[in-house]
């Protein structure tokens, strides 16, 4: 999409204008989607997808880069107070970038396999840990609907215990904040901006329909990579 190409070019231009001591910093950019904004309809409208990606995710990326630049500058100056103050902005905006980058991969148009149930080792693991795929979906929907305020509901892999877990995180906290050995396989955004234009304030309807475009192949591939069969 031309819009995202323009963003990438602007990022390069902006980086070129940075002071010399900042040019070595890694800057983050808005990732491209592998599908068009309207490709997930009717489960998720094209209008929501465009706003969610171009506006909300881009804002997290912009503010994350800004906070990292400020952190680098404060560190160079030995300004410990500013370094500490910036931690919340880095966690929030960095988490927003991490979470949304996963979220886009967790979705796929129906014609490209969206909604097809997991197969292979992940399918077996879901049955073993939750009883069935239906039971897992019910659990994630219930916990996502009950989450107060804004946040995420996750299907994660505990690499140390080699088991699947369902967790929720508040605001833009990534799953790793719940445990250093947790790997996010699927994350569902339950901030209002993810569904309000289409589902109004009925979060359970959004949670019910998003499974129609869930990309289980992505989750299965990641599971097999992180937890290979013996």
UniProtKB/TrEMBL annotation:
<feature type="binding site">
    <location>
        <position position="100"/>
    </location>
    <ligand>
        <name>Mn(2+)</name>
    </ligand>
</feature>
<keyword id="KW-0479">Metal-binding</keyword>
<dbReference type="Pfam" id="PF00081">
    <property type="entry name" value="Sod_Fe_N"/>
</dbReference>
<comment type="subunit">
    <text>Homotetramer.</text>
</comment>
<dbReference type="GO" id="GO:0004784">
    <property type="term" value="F:superoxide dismutase activity"/>
</dbReference>
<dbReference type="InterPro" id="IPR019831">
    <property type="entry name" value="Mn/Fe_SOD_N"/>
</dbReference>
<dbReference type="GO" id="GO:0005759">
    <property type="term" value="C:mitochondrial matrix"/>
</dbReference>
<keyword id="KW-0496">Mitochondrion</keyword>
<dbReference type="InterPro" id="IPR019832">
    <property type="entry name" value="Mn/Fe_SOD_C"/>
</dbReference>
<dbReference type="GO" id="GO:0030145">
    <property type="term" value="F:manganese ion binding"/>
</dbReference>
<comment type="similarity">
    <text>Belongs to the iron/manganese superoxide dismutase family.</text>
</comment>
<dbReference type="InterPro" id="IPR050265">
    <property type="entry name" value="Fe/Mn_Superoxide_Dismutase"/>
</dbReference>
<protein>
    <recommendedName>
        <fullName>Superoxide dismutase</fullName>
        <ecNumber>1.15.1.1</ecNumber>
    </recommendedName>
</protein>
<feature type="domain" description="Manganese/iron superoxide dismutase C-terminal">
    <location>
        <begin position="118"/>
        <end position="220"/>
    </location>
</feature>
<feature type="binding site">
    <location>
        <position position="189"/>
    </location>
    <ligand>
        <name>Mn(2+)</name>
    </ligand>
</feature>
<dbReference type="Pfam" id="PF02777">
    <property type="entry name" value="Sod_Fe_C"/>
</dbReference>
<feature type="binding site">
    <location>
        <position position="193"/>
    </location>
    <ligand>
        <name>Mn(2+)</name>
    </ligand>
</feature>
<dbReference type="InterPro" id="IPR036324">
    <property type="entry name" value="Mn/Fe_SOD_N_sf"/>
</dbReference>
<keyword id="KW-0464">Manganese</keyword>
<dbReference type="InterPro" id="IPR019833">
    <property type="entry name" value="Mn/Fe_SOD_BS"/>
</dbReference>
<dbReference type="InterPro" id="IPR036314">
    <property type="entry name" value="SOD_C_sf"/>
</dbReference>
<keyword id="KW-0560">Oxidoreductase</keyword>
<comment type="function">
    <text>Destroys radicals which are normally produced within the cells and which are toxic to biological systems.</text>
</comment>
<dbReference type="InterPro" id="IPR001189">
    <property type="entry name" value="Mn/Fe_SOD"/>
</dbReference>
<comment type="function">
    <text>Destroys superoxide anion radicals which are normally produced within the cells and which are toxic to biological systems.</text>
</comment>
<feature type="domain" description="Manganese/iron superoxide dismutase N-terminal">
    <location>
        <begin position="27"/>
        <end position="108"/>
    </location>
</feature>
<feature type="binding site">
    <location>
        <position position="52"/>
    </location>
    <ligand>
        <name>Mn(2+)</name>
    </ligand>
</feature>
């Amino acid at each position: 999409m031309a819009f995202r190409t323009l963003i990438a070019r602007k990022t390069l231009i902006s980086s070129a204008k940075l002071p010399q001591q900042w040019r070595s910093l890694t800057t983050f950019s808005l990732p491209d989607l592998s599908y068009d904004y309207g490709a997930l309809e009717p489960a998720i409208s094209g209008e929501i997808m465009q706003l969610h990606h171009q506006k909300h995710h881009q804002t997290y990326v912009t503010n994350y880069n800004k906070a990292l630049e400020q952190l680098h500058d404060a560190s160079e100056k030995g300004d410990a107070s500013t370094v500490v103050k910036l931690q919340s902005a880095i966690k929030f905006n960095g988490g927003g970038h991490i979470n949304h980058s996963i979220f886009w991969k967790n979705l796929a148009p129906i014609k490209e396999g969206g909604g097809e149930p997991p197969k292979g080792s992940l399918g077996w693991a879901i049955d073993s840990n939750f009883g069935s795929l239906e039971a897992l979906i019910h659990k994630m929907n219930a916990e996502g609907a009950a989450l107060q305020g804004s946040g995420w509901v996750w299907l994660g892999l505990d690499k140390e215990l080699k088991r699947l877990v369902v967790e929720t995180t508040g605001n833009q906290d990534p799953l790793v904040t719940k445990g250093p050995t947790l790997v996010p396989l699927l994350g569902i955004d339950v901030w209002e901006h993810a569904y309000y234009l289409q589902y109004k304030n009925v979060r359970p309807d959004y949670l019910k329909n998003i499974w129609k475009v869930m990309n289980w192949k992505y989750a299965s591939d990641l599971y097999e990579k992180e937890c290979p069969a013996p």
